[in-house]
Amino acid sequence: MASVLLPVSLLLGGLLLVPQLFGDFFAYQIGLYLIYGIAAQGIGFLWGRTGILPLGQALFFGVAAYATAHALRDVDGLAAQLGLAVLVLGGIVAVAFAIAALIFRGRSDSGPYFSLITLALVMAGEQIANTATGLTGGFNGLSGYDSLGGLDPFGNFYYLVVAAVVAVSALLLWLDRLPAVLIARAVADNEPRLQLLGFPTHVIKALAFAFSALIAALAGGLFASHQGIVTPTSIGFALSTELVILTAVGGRFHVFGPLLGAVLVGLASAELRDSFPYWEICLALAFVLVVLKAPGGLGEILGRLYHRILPRKPCKLPEPVQAPVSRAGEAPAPLRFDDVELRVGVVRILNGVRFETPASGIVGVIGPNGAGKTSLLNTITGNLPPTGGRILLGDRRAVGLPPHRALGLGIGRKLQVPSVFFSMSVAENLAIAMMAGRARWRDYLRPSPLGWRAPGLDAVLDTPAVPLRAELDRPVGALPQGHRQFLEFAMTTAAEPRVLLLDEPCAGLSHDETTLMTDLVRRFQADTGGLVIMIEHDMAIVEALSDKVLVLHQGRVLAFDSYDAVRADPAVQAVYAGGTK
Amino acid sequence: MSSVLVLNLVWQVGTLALIALGLAIVFGQLRIMNMAHGEFVMIGAYAPVITAALGLPGWLQLPVCVITVGAVALLIERTVIRHLYGRMFDSLLATWGISILLREAVELIFGRGYQSVAVPVPGTLYLLGADYPAYRVVVIAGIAAGFAALAWWNARSKVAGRIKAMVGNPDLARAIGINTGRLSAASFVFGCTTAGLAGLILAPTVRIEPMMGLDYLIRSFFALVVGGLGSLEGLGLGTAIIAGTQSLFGAALSQTHGYLAVLFISILFLWLKPNGIRSSSR
Amino acid sequence: MSGLLAIDTLTGGYHDTNVVFDVSVQVAPGQVLGLFGRNGVGKTTLARLVQGGLRPATGDIRLGGRSVTGLAAYERRALGLGYMPQTGMVFDDMSVRDNLYLGENRCPPDAYFDRFPRLAERLDQKAGSMSGGERKILAFVRTMIEDTGLLVLDEPSEGVQPENIDHMADCLKERARDGAGIILIEQNMTFLTQVADSYLGLDAGRVCLRGDAGEVTDGQIKAALAI
């Protein structure tokens, strides 16, 4: 906890000294910059962690500001005002969550478009604020109300702003150490992988967006009380982009970055705007330079300087803790395809695929390039919903579900090209995988799941030739391709799925690494007693591992039998000539 | 509906299409979310102001416009944009900074006040039963001819494919022999220059001021959102829907309603058809 | 020096981290050099240094007697260097046809369609919607038809079914017979030994084994690949 308490107390101490050292008017000015800083912290959280850039945060800021102005003017009593504030904040959170969840549902690529939607929303808000004179006072705005609780905006209201800054900062610092933010960062890193690990990414993104909206709204409420007037500029396009600029300049990856940006830019503007005609140009130039040369902003530059003076402590790996039982590993069940068809545009990829696997064992899938092998796996995990037919796992239908529901059915999948979280360490990758199918809501808000371990994962890590144990604190981006294959295998099996789908797990591996991988696959199947479906080109591997072999050709099942029987099948021989590495 | 309204609509669609064309290349092809696109419209609109201030003859407006806008665009591409290919969010932020920079620079040179310039082709033409400004008729014809020529060239040239290849996989594009530095600079400058030309065309019909670009940026972005990126037909459809919606709602109710209707349609498209009207369901 | 490609004490890698050290090798017209080694020893890095995607720290690369060390990848392509990358080897959001016709070709792709008929069937499909093996085949054919005299291929057989690997071997032998120099990086040693007439083994970024097909034994190759 020291890493939260120490910086927060320093911040609190520094801010409390401001009125004493510089006087009340200066504190009033700083108060305004801090209010913008709070809203920018919300942007920093969303943009720096999940990678979603909100261009319309002033919408939430402005709506809350107008609501506060109305409450202060028309509602009597602090309790009633605060009750109304909670109601408004709740409403804003609900609306923000609903918008984002709707837009993000069913896709993993609407980042830039989402930014444009937020931009369009804030522009609509500004138009309405300008024209709905009865509600907003139009161009002149709402004014002539007292500050919240009768505090003096030029005096003791400053301490309320400081309290809000400290509370938001402490909350954000605390979150940064928890699985919740690790998962949020995983969304920005590799969303399809996170979905295959069973996480509903559209809900995660919507939650993060709603949280940042809440922070913006909180700042908007303070703003209305602090300024004593709310005009359409408080809900405008210009304020939205200014908040983004403050966040970028200050640094979106650090909790204090946006605060720093808001205060520094605010002070410099107040000082220079009138005396120095080129000030706006200089500010714009500085902003462009930050984007180009220092994407982490001032926060990262200062952080680097700080760590040059005080070297960073080697990052401590979390305590290993026994993990709860995975919910993905129910009793093994056979997988059945009933006349499954898949068309993409005019191309027919699967043409009535029909087979039923045993509940347990290893099924090798072979077939010429383009036979539909990877597409077959895509229909099972919901990445490509079939255009006809049924897929059953035991007695449960596995069709029409989005990819993040596959793990809940007990289906784990390793992709063809290793798909892991490239910006994170091996330990963080494994932590996310261990939470898959195990974590419940409250687990995301406590640190212990970061160290979860289970016998299955330990068995993989303890295998002597598997290179991961020594690389736990290394960033995955620095690992060679082969090591990433083992990491992704360890991540996919961590949830102990009853059906494991492997897409060419030995691609790009040397001969010895291939032997190691086949050993791991065989052992996983023996330990769990589940089903493994593996696409493989190398017939030696297929022969060594498979209990049954499924031969696909032009989107149809050509044969499904033991290796020897398939090998002897003249139809198979006609289209498929075997060979080994 | 009166014929003047129809001709006005054609004028709106034509000029917006020219602005959106530049953005379609820069945003749609190069994947640079150019928030300074409207500022190139603005600089183009200042070209007649420049020639007038320097006492140059009127026919120099076109070369002055192309050279000024092209030089600014090339400078920005070489210093800023070329670091931003493949970084869409960063391109948005940096070009937002550039747009502020350009507005402030123009304001320092020409002042904040409105400027206006004379129509180069005076008089009216009798068209479809109404008198209509000859200048607008000439411009509409010119834009139509320009788009036809572009469509003809696009169908024969490998350039569109090469740009797509460069943006999708720059390493591989260089490996098969594409000079990506030159191609991207040329595309960016071309896109910005069409916006500047649109500014020059619009100059006699609007109030020229440093802030004028923002509205054109937003509307051309939404035209691309509605029409989808990557085809000239989509561009035409998108601009027709955006300009048409704004004109009709604007004429029937008020400017604000026209504006809100455009926003509403854009949000609907972004949500339900993020690849534009011509894309089949995903 | 009559060689097509001459690499002289080449050292280089990513940013300031060198991955390849002091590699010297020459490739003559008609020669197929098999480049092999375990994962992460610098094969792809060496290929990209030769191709121009990465700039070497020290050393010299000569193509047809002319130093290309300071030239960009597209300039080396114009001098006749063809390259098939290990990943990102096709333009995913373009059709198979556009992938094949984008560059300057020495012959139309039809010449390869009887060996790889799937490509002809899928000309209008997006390359990104094809399977991994099909994309490798597409990139391979693209590299074959380009008007180049030196080919660098980084693991073309990964994910490709054995029958098509045999076709690839035939294509490579044909190009070599017609005078092209080829550098072939492979994990699949059956394929590599089928076409290579000389070998270069890398370990930790340095040459650990070199020689003609006759001189290098299976045991030496196995030793170079052992973990």
From TrEMBL, chain A:
Coiled coil: none annotated. It is a multi-pass membrane protein. It is found in: Cell membrane. This is ATP-binding cassette domain-containing protein. The chain crosses the membrane at residues 55-72, 78-104, 116-137, 157-175, 203-223, 253-270, 276-294. It comes from Thalassovita aquimarina. GO terms for molecular function: ATP binding. Residues 335-579 form the ABC transporter domain. InterPro entries: AAA+_ATPase, ABC_AA/LPS_Transport, ABC_transp_permease, ABC_transporter-like_ATP-bd, LivM-like, P-loop_NTPase. Keywords: ATP-binding, Cell membrane, Membrane, Nucleotide-binding, Transmembrane, Transmembrane helix, Transport. SUPFAM superfamilies: P-loop containing nucleoside triphosphate hydrolases.
UniProtKB/TrEMBL annotation, chain B:
The lineage of its organism: Bacteria, Pseudomonadati, Pseudomonadota, Alphaproteobacteria, Rhodobacterales. The chain crosses the membrane at residues 6-28, 40-60, 134-155, 221-242, 248-272. This is Branched-chain amino acid ABC transporter permease. Its main location: membrane. It holds the Pfam family BPD_transp_2. Keywords: Amino-acid transport, Cell membrane, Membrane, Transmembrane, Transmembrane helix, Transport. It is a multi-pass membrane protein. Coiled coil: none annotated. It is found in: Cell membrane. The keyword Cytoplasm does not apply. The keyword Lyase does not apply. InterPro entries: ABC_transp_permease (IPR001851), BCAA_transport_permease (IPR052157).
UniProtKB/TrEMBL annotation, chain C:
It comes from Thalassovita aquimarina. Pfam families: ABC_tran. InterPro entries: AAA+_ATPase, ABC_transporter-like_ATP-bd, BCAA_Transport_ATP-bd_LivF, P-loop_NTPase. PROSITE patterns: ABC_TRANSPORTER_2. Residues 5-227 form the ABC transporter domain. Belongs to the ABC transporter superfamily. This is ATP-binding cassette domain-containing protein. Keywords: Amino-acid transport, ATP-binding, Nucleotide-binding, Transport. Coiled coil: none annotated. GO terms for molecular function: ATP binding. The keyword ATP-binding applies.
